[in-house]
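Suppose a colleague, Dr. K., hands you the sequence of a protein chain of 615 amino acids and asks what its three-dimensional shape might be. Before reaching for any lab equipment, you can write down a predicted structure in token form. Begin with the sequence itself:
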Amino acid sequence: MSIPRGSQVQKRFSSFMRKGLLEVPSPAEKDWPKDDEDDYVFVDLGQEVDSLPQPYRMINKMVNLLFDKCWEVIQERDALRDVEFSRTQPTTYPPLVENKLNKMPNCMAISQDYVFIGGAKGFSIYNLYNAKRIYIWEKLKVDVTSIWATDLGNEILIAPVDEMGIARLFYFNKDGLFLIKAINEVDDASKQTTCIKMEMSQGGDFAAFLLQGAGDIWLDVYKLPKESWLKEVEHPQPAINPKKKRQPQPNTLEPVTSENLEMDMNVCFRGDIKLSLPVHIMKIKPPKPVTGTTFKSPLEVFAKVEDYYGLGSGQNHFIKDSQWEQLAAIFLAPHQKYLDKEWEEEPPSMATFHFLLPSSIITMPVEVKGPSGFPLGVIALPKGCSCQSIHFLKYFLVHKGQNMYPESPLKSHMKCVVLCTDSSLYLVTAKRTQGPTISVLVERPIKHLDEAICAVAPVLALPGMLLIFSKNGSVQLMDVAKPQIICAFALPRTYHLAVPWKPLFAVSVQHPCFLLRGDHPDEIESDDTKNIQNSVFYFNLEAYPLLENISRNHTIPETDMTENMAFAQVLPLEKRCESFLQKRFQKLEKKVKEQEHWTRLRRYSLLLQRENFRK
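The predicted structure, expressed as tokens, is then:
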């Protein structure tokens, strides 16, 4: 059934009307007056509306406008419904297990076979498979808002951050849970700094903390003594606090003794054991604005600058304040009319940092030995796109129609997924032998904003697989090599995401599984928070029929790699490039002689200055 629009309604009500007053006809037909066309006139009801007085004429126009807008929305929804019916929907899988928690989870992390959930006044440790709670550490006065967990082999490094922005490091193994250090906790509350973001390198060799305080922001990088921790746990030493002596409390971590929650390990919190502290290796601050130099003569520059590498690069420059003012005036003269216009306020940016393989370009500690690497390339995002997050993928190859990891690790190869602020998604591939390339995985939504991507997470256990979380609450699995959506995942009908644009999830690095928090609508509206059962749903990708072939074969042998013609052509070129780069690095040794020339130049400058003073 079609509904006519406002203008069509008015046209249909237009009719012929007779002039003058209507009379009652006589019973006899012979006395009926003959109709004449001149006696009728065409009357348009729209003219009567236009002749209405105010404010009725304005009300009528507003009603007609509202009717037209509603009709446009109806037509758009009908078109969208037709597109949805014609589009092939991916297969949707439900969760395998529902884990009910007695407390509201604020954050989650997965490492090995354990799940770490941060909540009120601390965090809890659960078994990944049977959802049995193993430990509870609740020694804080505030809630834990974020938590990280890194696999150290047989041990796990845990890093929770609370509401006050204090980051702590915990060491977890079969013997217990050890508190290593509170990274940014101080006694003076006025000097307290806040941890905005943190990151740990793969393998747990390094940790970085983005700190903010007193109007400044910086990045602290630590070297983690994993080997020392392993020895100290095997041969424990009691911790002694010289400021305040007290008896150790080995049972501060309360084990769960409920009948429904069984203990998997009989281990307690070891607060009496002292472990080595992380070693601070560098502090990175934002670059300071370029200002005029305080040097008065070139001789003073040569005398006080220790090396020549930064000379002329904007670091050890020799430009006075008056010269900066002249340059600014030259720039403002032709561009003043453009600068006077109103500019939109730039959105605040958040620093993003990641750990890459050590290289000759990056300064590393002396005891760390790593392969020589080199920058793989620089690539720019499309115009108008700003980076929201970067997710590095384990490099994979497409062999016989399937994504596979090579058995031996490849050097100088990298793939990463970039999520932009406009919800567009890109795949960046970089190789040392070729220039970096960028391809579009998902374009930014134009009309249907509810389909915008809010978060992504790579499934490292499956080559080339990426989880995509949208603002409408949908979760999809994408193959970035094709690219295409393989399947989707959904919570039970009685549950939904409390904040769809900020989902709470955790993806395992070792296993093809992930956890997703779901909330019941009735529980959210309930005022009785004590009886609320919060649920975390477990999705195992190996258990779904559509993903069986994907999860079986993970690696490709080296013999099959050489059969791939596209890859066989790359290997010889890579070796040639490696040799070329090694020769270039050898030339850096010649820079030592140049440094000697610079030292002699400094000495000569000092001699000239002394002679000038004598005169």
